[in-house]
Structures are given as C-alpha cells and as structure tokens.
C-alpha cells in the first residue's frame, strides 16, 4: 500500500511516499518557504536524482498540489495516478490527553486537534492547514493523525503531574505530555528487536538528540517518563532551547533586562541551549569544528549538553529501577560520536563500558557501541518517524470497511 506521509510546519511541508509492503521510500522532499517569498521545492524519487526548484507557494494547498504533480509527473514521477495513494498520514505534534493512539481523521478529530492548538500554537494550526489542503485535493482518500504525544500517554500520574496547585491540571490540563513520541516508540521497539530482547520484559532508555532533544524511559514497551513537558521546552539543554531551569530565572531576568514574559519565553526557546552558551551556533557540527579550533565556549556547550543527558539517564535508571539498554538516535545521537562518548563516560557507575572503536565506526547506522562485557548495552538506532507514521496509517485504514 502506498502511503503519503506529511509533516506540515507553518512555512514548510516535508513529505515521503512510502510503500508499506516493502517499507521502501518511493519519493521524498520538502516544500520550503510556503507563504513567503523565495519558495523552494525539493523532490527525490527512489533511485533518481534530487531536484530543487524555485517555486512560489502561496499556501499549503498549492504546496501539496506541487507534491502531487511531482509524484505523478510522466517523466520523473513515481506513480501513474493519485488513486495509487491509498492513504495520507499526518504528523501532529500535540494530541493533549485525548489521543492515546493514532486516529482516522474525522471532523471530530479535527476539532480535538484545534482544541490542543493552545498547547502547541506553532505546530497544531500548521498541521490543520496540511489536513485541510489534502482534504480539498484528495477528498476521498482516508487520512490518519499520528501524535507526538500519544506514546507518552501511558505515563503514570506521578510522572506527569507538576508540583503546582492541582487545580491547574483540572482547569487547564497543565501537566507533562512529552514529545518525539513517534521516535521514542520506533526506537524502543527497534532496540529490542536489534538486541534480541523481549520488548514486553525490558527497560530501555531512548535518547532522541537532535535540534530538539528528549529522553524517554520505556518499560515493557511503554513510556513511563520523558524529559519534555507541557511544551517541548523542558528537559535537556537543546540547540536553542534552555531545557530545565529554575522558574525563578524568568522573573529575575525580566526585572534585570526589563523584558516581558513573552520576550523571555522567546529567549528560552530560540536563543538559549548550546547556542546561548556558546554564543556561536545551535548546530553541533559547528560546535565540533569550533571546539577543534580551540573555542572554549563551544567545548563548554558540548560538555553541558552531554552532562545533562547523562544526568537524565541516571534518573531514568532510577525511574525504571534498572536499565537493559540505552539507545541513541536523531542527528546528534546517530552521528556525534564524541558527544556519545562523553555521555557514556559518566555512566561507568552502572557498569557500562564504551567500545571506543565501535563508537567511532557507528555513524548514522544501527550498531552496538558498548563492549561485550558492559552490564548495559548501548546502541545507535537511527530513528524513522515517517515509517512509523506510515505503519500506523496502514493499520488504521486497513480497518475501514
Ligand atoms: P531535528 O529533526 O530536531 O531538526 P536532527 O535530528 O536532524 O534535528 O539533528 C540535527 C542536529 O544533528 C544538528 O545539531 C546537527 O549539527 C547534528 N548533526 C548532524 N550530523 C552530525 C554529525 N555528523 N556530527 C555531529 N552532529 C551532527
């Protein structure tokens, strides 16, 4: 079954056409700068050349039209007609408490996604634009919503409640939701398969380390705790996000710098993390290059990042009362061997030993990076959120009569 996976942002749209029988990506690409001057459309068919075209895209409907035309183009396309696309899977960032699993998109599901827009104002409205555009262009194709928050809905209340007056949870649903759920779900399952351990009897810590980063404690295949919270700002030190700070910092800086809460939130989201510490870049490749040139702040930012990850792994080992495996994924986790080395060097107290050679050799591929006698196995498992979305979409649309 061919399934179109769409990840819609406010001005961008990433897509993949996946054959779910073979799990092969038939085509993929990005529509960039939707609704802004200088639009760019990238298209890469399976086995073909990647092409980049400058095309203005006034809205998401125009962008999706361009994607569908490229997929069915007689010369460079990959399918003969749109009827070959049996379903569309949409990545949705926030599903609140309502969605514990993926869902077939109906009017009711759309209104629940709208209700959660308050909690993810940058993401959910953009996803809705993508859904509506697909509805307009392919009205009879079933669509499925796959939520970043759904995997974490198995967290027990003691893990998701904040130490705040309980009425804020009752009135406004202020609680930990967690994000990157599709990635943590995929990587934890794949880790168990890869290491040949039974998922239903396992304790796995998954570390999704990218621009945005989060960690998840997965017990018997279920999320029991995760580092992001009400929003994706909590937890690890990230590319541009602060992660955990003393909440009193907000008022303190507001007074000192004469800033509004909104301005401070912008700093915490966009000007903090390793960018803020290094004063240089949010990109770990830039930080590595600068560190190698002797930039001490770049080195410090990388150390702070690794230290926070190691502390979370320690605390999630306590949450799980033990750990069988630790898995690294996403841009930094899959590629940044020195960062992984630094993290693992903090974990020797757990009987974990790094296989230096394997760590250096495992870049962007699956592999074990701990020594055979390490008490806990540490591995790299490249994430694949699109495949997970395609799988969920297939499962749900197969149930439609
Ligand atoms: P997101 O999906 O959150 O935007 P990614 O998972 O693509 O992010 O991760 C992006 C991060 O991964 C960037 O900071 C980038 O520098 C880092 N990264 C990618 N490749 C490498 C590499 N070879 N070495 C070190 N860091 C890398």
TrEMBL record:
Positions bound to substrate: 91
Residues annotated for Mg(2+) binding in this entry: 7, 385
Pathway of action: Metabolic intermediate biosynthesis; acetyl-CoA biosynthesis; acetyl-CoA from acetate: step 1/2
Cell location: Cytoplasm
Cellular component terms per the entry's GO annotation: cytoplasm
Keyword vocabulary terms for this entry: ATP-binding, Cytoplasm, Kinase, Magnesium, Metal-binding, Nucleotide-binding, Transferase
Site-annotated residues for Transition state stabilizer: 180, 241
Chain positions recorded as ATP binding sites: 14, 208-212, 283-285, 331-335
One of the GO biological process terms: acetate metabolic process
Entries under Pfam families matching the protein: Acetate_kinase (PF00871)
Function: Catalyzes the formation of acetyl phosphate from acetate and ATP. Can also catalyze the reverse reaction.
Assembly information from the UniProt record: Homodimer.
PANTHER family noted in UniProt: ACETATE KINASE, ACETATE KINASE-RELATED
Name used for this protein in its record: Acetate kinase
Organism this protein belongs to: Helicobacter canadensis MIT 98-5491
């Amino acid at each position: 079954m061919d399934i179109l996976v769409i990840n819609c942002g406010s001005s961008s749209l990433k897509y993949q056409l996946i054959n779910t029988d073979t799990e092969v990506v038939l085509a993929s690409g990005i529509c960039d700068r939707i609704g802004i001057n200088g639009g760019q459309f990238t298209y890469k068919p399976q086995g073909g050349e990647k092409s980049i075209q400058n095309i203005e895209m006034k809205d998401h409907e125009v962008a999706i039209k361009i994607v569908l035309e490229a997929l069915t183009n007689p010369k460079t396309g990959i399918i003969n007609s749109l009827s070959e696309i049996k379903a569309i899977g949409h990545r949705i960032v926030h599903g609140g408490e309502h969605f514990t699993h993926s869902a077939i998109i109906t009017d009711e599901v759309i209104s629940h996604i709208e209700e959660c827009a308050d909690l993810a104002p940058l993401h959910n409205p953009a996803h809705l634009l993508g859904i509506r555009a697909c509805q307009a262009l392919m009205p009879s194709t079933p669509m499925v919503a796959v939520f970043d928050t759904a995997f974490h809905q198995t967290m027990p209340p003691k893990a998701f409640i904040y130490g705040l007056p309980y009425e804020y949870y009752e009135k406004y649903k202020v609680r930990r939701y967690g994000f990157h759920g599709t990635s943590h779900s995929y990587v934890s399952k794949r880790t168990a398969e890869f290491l040949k351990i039974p998922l239903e009897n396992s304790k796995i810590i998954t570390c999704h380390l990218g621009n945005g980063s989060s960690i998840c404690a997965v017990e018997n295949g279920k999320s029991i705790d995760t580092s992001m919270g009400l929003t994706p700002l909590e937890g690890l030190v990230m590319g541009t996000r602060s992660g955990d700070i003393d909440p009193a910092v907000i008022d303190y800086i507001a007074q000192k710098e004469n800033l509004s809460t909104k301005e401070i939130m912008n700093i915490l989201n966009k000007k903090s993390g390793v960018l803020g510490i290094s004063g240089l870049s949010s990109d770990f490749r830039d930080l590595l290059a600068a560190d190698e040139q002797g930039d001490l702040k770049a080195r410090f930012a990388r150390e702070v990042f690794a230290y926070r990850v190691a502390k979370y792994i320690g605390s999630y080992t306590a949450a799980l009362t033990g750990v069988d495996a630790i898995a690294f994924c996403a841009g930094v986790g899959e590629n940044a061997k020195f960062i992984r080395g630094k993290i693992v060097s903090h974990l020797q107290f757990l009987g974990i030993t790094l296989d230096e050679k394997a760590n250096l050799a495992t870049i962007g591929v699956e592999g074990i990076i701990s020594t055979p006698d390490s008490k806990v196995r540490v591995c790299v498992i490249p994430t694949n959120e699109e495949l997970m979305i395609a799988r969920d979409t297939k499962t749900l649309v197969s149930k439609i009569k």
